[in-house]
Amino acid sequence: MAEAPALSVQGLTTEFRIGGQWHAAIRGIDFDLGKNETLALVGESGCGKSITALSIMGLIPKAAGRIAAGKILFEGQDLAQLDEEHLREIRGDRIAMIFQEPMTSLNPVLTIGFQVAEALRYHRGMSQAEARTHALELLEQVKIPSARQRLDDYPHQFSGGMRQRVMIAMALACKPQILLADEPTTALDVTIQAQVLLLLAELKQLYGMSMIFISHNLGVVATIADRVAVMYAGEIVETAAVGDLFDRPTHPYTEALLSSIPRVDRTSDTLMAIPGQVPAINRMPGGCRYAPRCALRQPVCERPPALAPVSGSAPTHLARCWVRAGGDR
Amino acid sequence: MSAVTGDMAAAPPRANRALRQLLAAFNTNKTSWVGLATFAVVVAIAILAPVLATHDPIEQNILEKLKGPSAEFILGTDGFGRDIWSRLVYGARLSLWIGGVSILIAMVVGSLIGMVAGYFGGRLDIAIMQVMDVLLSFPSLILGLMVVAMMGPSVGNLIFAIALTAIPPFARIARAPTVSVKERDYIEACRALGYSHPRIMAVHILPNIFPEILVMGSLWLATAIRVEASLSFIGLGVRPPTPTWGGMIREGFENILDTWWLSMAPSVAILVVVFALNMIGDGLRDFVDPKLKGERGG
Amino acid sequence: MLQYLIKRLLYAVPTLLAVLTVVFFVARVLPGDPAQVMLGEQAGAEAIQALRVRLGLDRPLVEQYVDFMQGALSGDWGTSLVTGRSVLGEVLNVIPFTIELTLASILLGALIGVPLGAWSALHRNSLVDYATRIGSLFGLSFPAFVMAIMLLLAFAIQLDWFPVISSGGGGSVSERLLHLALPAVNLGIIMAAYITRVTRSSMLEVLGEDYVRTARAKGVPHRAVVWQHCLRNALIPVVTVVGLYLGILIGNSVLTEIVFNRPGLGKLIVGALTQRDYTMLQGLMVVYTFIIVVVNLLTDLTYGFIDPRVKYQ
Fold it and tell me: Is residue C65 one of the residues assigned to a domain?
């Protein structure tokens, strides 16, 4: 990549304390996020997608979690080393985040106008009136009908889709360079999902942002992402440009995820659920973490595989599998 | 048929699990054990009162009045020359007896009311719970005070008054699980087998709610002992010369400028018992009210 | 808001009727003859019968009930057997003192309890948190009269900072405050113990809420997260508990008024008890009924004030 990436995550490992012991929830996460690029993090719940995003934001709860290793490079600074006050200055200003649950992510006792204006007041030092005017523009931008009247309404007076639009307006308030969207449409009805996705894509163009889009749904990812990183049990198991990944899914887990998407061009009886569950973070297998659920399991899978280029695909297409990508045998 | 018995066999382990959870809650909270140990000591003292008392708690001996602590009178004597230590241990008996019996009655009656309301549902349920809410809105002390004032102070009336104020919380606690349990398959099966309502409630519902009722009981026992002492202090307790902690405090208080120290020993006694019971309940409160458990959003 | 108010007021009516019925039940239906209790064990049968007639206890229960309810609802709460003055008049004389005491102790309890509970939650499992939890548990284990006696001994008798008999104070504000101080501290500490515990647990819950994470993700400073985003949400259950404990507070104020010899409803009740003033007692029960219903109403209204969701439910 010629241009410097907007964000570079290198060897990121975040641990949580369970019963007095630290266990890695994500381990050795590497990726670059280019300017104007949309990177999708994909995987089942519990695979570490949200932890990755929260680590970047510096929002890992301090009592139970810590960034144990790795760098998060942004504008020449390592966010992993930054103190809370400096992180706070970046959060909501240059890096913003949208959360999954629009129903619980807005404060029930504060008005929408207040909550949207808040970031502007802290990061831009705007007066209450200025921030309010600006908040109104933002609400109009995310297409909330009769926004002026709704500025003083409370979250419970909005539908789920409208609340997610409010969340987007909040995140965009300071025109961030990077937007982290954690399953922004999962909790919404299918028709509303499409509208919100469209809105996000539009606004990303308009603002010239980079975006990390987190989803468990490869179908959604196909429509919005440039590049995909598939995560499993705290590791990236496959990463590729979106086209390469869909053309040539390599890791058995990616394959399984793809076959679990309902598609019009396939009959429903081939729609598979993946047997088994993501292992708990204090019970990780020593070798390939997917091995216990994998149909292609070999003796070599007892040892941990590394991300390796997928032969016959683009050089940026990597997979973490002894059997399919060869690993570094 | 075998499927039915299989379903019914699932009921008792559920109760065991609840008891195990209760024990686990106990173990994670050390203060609960401290409270339980302290309370056990007080109960032992009350039971052993005739052995531990060095004097007759009622017999007056004016020649020995208002003596300080000595070998003969461990905590000294009161204005009638009665041994304070002996009155204290017999007072423990009365306090625990009135508190214990009234809470036991409230537990039994309250659970029954709650179970009946929850089990039969409908208008009966609404009516019963409405009455419970009304009773609950009355402060224990005021209701107790009214009842005793109208009926006259006696051990029986005190127990009745305190039990009355403590019934609603038990009814509430018993009702909610009953409503959910009665919908389960094995209850249907019991009905199909022709078991009577009382039997179904006793065998299949009671074990499920028992641990919660026990925890609630420890919390309300603290209230009961406090209310009894308060009523005795006001002068509505068991009549003198029977030793009651509240009454003993009152004796010291009436001449607070001269004999204030008469109030101290019974004050400490009440404080220790109520604090011990609250410590027991403290760690177990989460067990009763799952809402208070720190639910964290994902 | 007005609609909510009217709805709440309408809800209060059946509660009031129900509680008054409970009072009637306690006063007339429970075993135990008030006339006998009033006149004592030695009273002759004729004297008891005469008092029964005078109190109307010899009439059919239904008739008594109708009379009682009419009287209670129309504000005719009877006249004292001893002084011959109306119960309402006696109550109006002393109620300012009780209200003053109750409000002061709630204020004190909230001023101590809310910050302490919030602070304890923010420093969960620290030494101070642990001390706060044990301390508040200890505080609410105090029977009100026990703590009152200790305060009286320490600060009024030994140190002589406050009057021993809190007659309520004369005209001047400072004197009134001086008389209010110890009783209010007594009830305030117990109230603070309750409020600390509820604030702590509800704050802990709120700190784990998604919207707190959202606020932090916006870069809102820690202080503002706590004060603007958490505290107001955490206070919703606190209001419930304050409402519930107002009942306990009303009970405890009786004991406090006795110990500090302070005029108020509690003193009135105990006076009526010792003078066996049956009509006064019954009237006071009605008074308490109204107080409790009003308190519940106020609690509900406070919700509407801090929780915007309530108005629209």
Answer: yes
Interface confidence (ipTM) of the complex:
0.86
- Please list every residue in chain C whose beta carbon sits closer than 8 Å to the beta carbon of residue B292: 201, 205
Q: How many Cβ atoms from other residues are within 10 Å of residue A110's Cβ?
A: 19
pLDDT digits (tens, 9 = 90+) for B222-271: 989 999 999 999 888 888 788 888 888 888 888 877 777 788 889 999 99
- Based on the fold, state whether residues C67 and C173 are members of the same structural domain: no
- C31 and C131 share one domain: no
For each of chain A's 329 residues, which pLDDT tens digit applies? 457 889 999 999 999 988 788 888 999 999 999 999 999 999 888 788 899 999 999 998 887 889 999 999 999 899 999 998 999 999 999 999 999 888 889 998 899 999 999 999 999 988 989 999 999 999 998 889 988 999 999 998 998 889 999 999 999 999 999 999 998 888 788 888 888 889 999 999 999 999 999 998 888 888 899 999 999 989 999 999 999 999 889 999 998 888 876 655 555 444 556 777 777 877 788 888 888 888 888 888 888 888 888 888 888 899 998 888 764 44
Cα nearest neighbour of A116 on chain C: C218
- Taking CB atoms and an 8 Å limit, are B138 and C247 in contact across chains? yes
Of B84, B110, B218, the closest CA to residue B164 belongs to B110
Give the residues across from A72 on adjacent strands.
A9
Burial of A315 (0-12, 13-18, 19+ CB in 10 A): exposed
The model's pTM: 0.82
What whole-number distance in Å separates Cα of residue C31 and Cα of residue C28?
Answer: 8
Q: Do B256 and C157 touch (CB under 8 A)?
A: yes
* pLDDT for position B106: 95
- As a whole number of angstroms, the distance between CA A107 and CA C207 comes to 12
Q: What percent of chain B has pLDDT over 70?
A: 88
The answer as to whether C83 is a domain residue is no
What totals of helices (H) and strands (E) does chain C contain, helices first?
A: 13, 0
How many of the other CB atoms lie within 10 Å of CB of A200? 26
Range of the domain at C19: 2-73
| Chain C residue with the nearest C-alpha to that of B127 | C18
* H/E element, B270: helix B264-288
Q: Do C312 and A96 touch (CB under 8 A)?
A: no
Q: Measuring CA to CA, which residue among C287, C262, C245, C203 is closest to residue C106?
A: C245
Q: Do residues C223 and C129 share a domain?
A: yes
| B286 touching chain C per CB within 8 A | no
Show which residues on chain C lie within 8 Å of chain A, measured between beta carbons.
124, 209-211, 213-222, 224, 228-229, 232-233, 306-309, 312
Residues B222 and B278: beta-carbon distance below 8 Å: yes
Alpha carbons B250 and B233: distance in angstroms, whole number: 5
